[in-house]
Each structure stands twice: as structure tokens, then as C-alpha cells.
Design brief:
14 helices, 0% strand, mainly alpha
Length: 349
């Protein structure tokens, strides 16, 4: 091997080494900033949700996309302001009352459990697992630790809203910037994959938004008819948790049942039956009506992704696990199954 060839080989080796180091550095940065990456992903989801009615309005009225997006944004802002004026004080007051009553609710639950042998055994297990810590409120402090970071939560919400607004207004520059990182001969295919991921996520978001609204309404009506405390706050929690399949409804049911148990065991039983009935309606009536228009994900895939993201990231990872799984299935189906394996019948999700 002569000197020019050795020099060319050495330069290629240095280039590959630099690329490898850059990839490792990028992965490390992503790992340490995973919360920021997930917040950006949530911003993308919100942007897709904003674009759905805007695109529908533009297609049917002939308005420019920017104008239709502005109309949708103005309508949403008006709804938020109107809802805040009409119901905001009541909802916020109910939520604050619920938080204030948590120590009293926990103490009442403790007293009721101590009235029977079975209850005392349940209480012993709960204390051993740290759910109750001798009545000194340490569990309450841990359980409500997130409330101490209200400023951080509000800041994250503001970041997501602005990120979503910029993405929804002009998605083109961001997509084109991402495509510059791909080889020129693969850009058109990657563009197809990105648009298909966007389409699938849009269908999933619209479907889940519809299900969440239905669950929140049914829960609020049911809790009100049962005479349960804090029906609006618990109904809103149930609606938000509907965006986390399988795990979310269980998480929403637990505080409602505990609040009911603090009033009476009979009320707790009725609340549990209410949530069971609502989930049956959602699973066997509402979800089938939505899923033929939205994306379908196998339950095992959703649960595995939720557990994996929960272990790696925590609660935020569980919240975004399902749309991440949907996006990953689209990418795997199109880039690997179709392009690499040659199976052109693969369908995302």
C-alpha cells in the first residue's frame, strides 16, 4: 500500500471515529436530557392535535393553513377563557379542597381499617409497604411531593405550549432540517415515513381525545348521582388518565375509591362499580367505534412499552409510551419490514 492510499485510509478511519464519537456524545446528551426530549415529543403531539381541526377547516372552507390555524387557536383560547371564567374557580376550589382533605381522608381510612381483623391486616401490609407511615403524614409528603414543584410544572406546560404553537404554525422547516441528516437518496422515503407517523399519531390523538371526553362526562355524572365528594376534580382526572391506556383508568379509580371509602365503605363500593361500568362501556362500546378510524395497537405492545418507559424515565415515560409505540411501529413497518425485508403488505399498527 503506497503512501496516498495509507493517507486516505487513515482519513476515513478518523472520519468514522469522529462520527462514532459524535453519535455516542449525542446519545449521552439525550439520555441525560431525556425529560426535555419527552417534553418536545409532547409538544409535537399537541401540535398535531392543533393541526387536525385546522386542516379540516382549511379543506372545507378554502382558507389558508395559517388562517385556519389562527381561527382554531382563537376558538380554543376563547373556550379556555370562557371555561375558566364560568367553571375555573369552582374546579380549582374543588381540587384545592381535595388536596387539603387528603390528611383527613387518610386518617379516616386508617380508622375504618382498624375496625376489623381483615382491615388491620390490610393496614399492616400498607404500613410495611410505606403507604402509611405511622400517621405522621410522611406518606402524604411523599405522595404530594410533586405539588412542591408547581413552578417547574407550569414552566414545562408553557414550554410545551410554545413549542407546539411553533411546530403547528410552520412544520416544514423542522421536517426539512431533520431530513438534512439523512442520505440524499433516502430523504423522500424518510419524508413518507414522517408523514405517515404524523397521520397515525393524529388519528390516535383524536380518538383518545374523544374517549377522554366521554369518560370524563360519564364519571362526573356518575359521581354526582352517587353523591361522592369532589366529582368534577375526580372526573377531570379520569379524563386525563384515559390518555394512558390500561394503567391510567386504574390510577384514576384509586383516589376516587379512597375518597368514597373515607365517607363510607358502601360509597366506595358503588364508586368502584361505577368505574368498572364506565371502563366496560369504554372498552366494549366506545373504543370499537373509535378504533376502526384510529390506530390499533396490540395490548401487549402497549403494556411492554409502558413498563419499559416507566423503568427508564418514570411517570413522564409512561404518559408518552403509547404514542411512542405507535410511531415506532410505523417506522419499523415501513423502513424495516417493507424496505429491508421486502414485505409490501405491512401495515402500521
Amino acid at each position: 500500500m503506497d503512501r496516498p492510499e495509507r493517507k486516505d485510509t487513515a482519513q476515513r478511519a478518523l472520519l468514522y471515529a469522529a462520527i462514532a464519537v459524535a453519535v455516542v456524545v449525542m446519545l449521552v446528551l439525550i439520555w441525560y436530557a431525556i425529560d426535555v426530549v419527552l417534553l418536545a415529543f409532547i409538544g409535537i403531539l399537541v401540535a398535531i392535535l392543533l393541526r387536525a381541526p385546522a386542516d379540516w377547516l382549511a379543506a372545507r372552507t378554502g382558507l389558508r393553513e395559517s388562517w385556519s390555524l389562527g381561527v382554531v387557536g382563537a376558538l380554543l383560547l376563547a373556550l379556555l377563557i370562557g371555561g375558566g371564567v364560568l367553571f375555573g374557580r369552582g374546579v380549582a376550589g374543588e381540587a384545592l379542597q381535595l388536596v387539603d382533605r387528603i390528611p383527613e381522608i387518610l386518617e379516616t381510612i386508617r380508622e375504618r381499617l382498624q375496625e376489623s381483623d381483615f382491615g388491620r391486616r390490610v393496614l399492616a401490609v400498607a404500613e410495611a409497604s410505606g403507604l402509611f407511615s405511622g400517621g405522621d403524614g410522611r406518606f402524604l409528603g411523599r405522595g404530594l411531593g410533586l405539588l412542591g414543584s408547581t413552578f417547574g410544572i407550569v414552566a414545562n406546560i408553557v414550554i410545551v405550549i410554545f413549542f407546539a404553537a411553533f411546530m403547528a404554525a410552520e412544520p416544514g422547516p423542522y421536517i426539512n432540517g431533520l431530513l438534512f441528516l439523512v442520505a440524499r437518496n433516502r430523504r423522500s422515503r424518510v419524508r413518507e415515513v414522517l408523514y405517515e407517523i404524523g397521520r397515525v399519531l393524529r388519528r390516535w390523538l383524536v380518538g383518545q381525545a374523544f374517549l377522554s371526553l366521554c369518560v370524563a362526562l360519564l364519571t362526573g355524572i356518575g359521581l354526582t348521582l352517587l353523591g361522592a365528594p369532589f366529582p368534577v376534580a375526580l372526573a377531570l382526572l379520569a379524563g386525563f388518565m384515559e390518555f394512558i391506556p390500561y394503567i391510567g383508568p386504574f390510577v384514576a379509580a384509586v383516589p376516587a375509591i379512597l375518597v368514597g371509602f373515607a365517607e363510607s365503605p358502601q360509597l366506595a363500593l358503588w364508586i368502584a362499580l361505577l368505574f368498572l361500568a364506565i371502563q366496560s362501556i369504554e372498552s366494549y362500546v366506545l373504543a370499537p367505534l373509535v378504533q376502526h378510524r384510529a390506530v390499533y395497537l396490540p395490548p401487549a405492545v402497549i403494556l411492554f412499552t409502558q413498563v419499559l418507559m416507566g423503568v427508564i424515565v418514570g411517570a413522564l415515560g409512561v404518559a408518552v409510551a403509547t404514542p411512542l409505540a405507535a410511531a415506532a411501529m410505523v417506522a419499523i413497518s415501513m423502513l424495516y419490514v417493507e424496505d429491508a425485508l421486502g414485505d409490501k403488505n405491512a401495515a402500521p399498527g
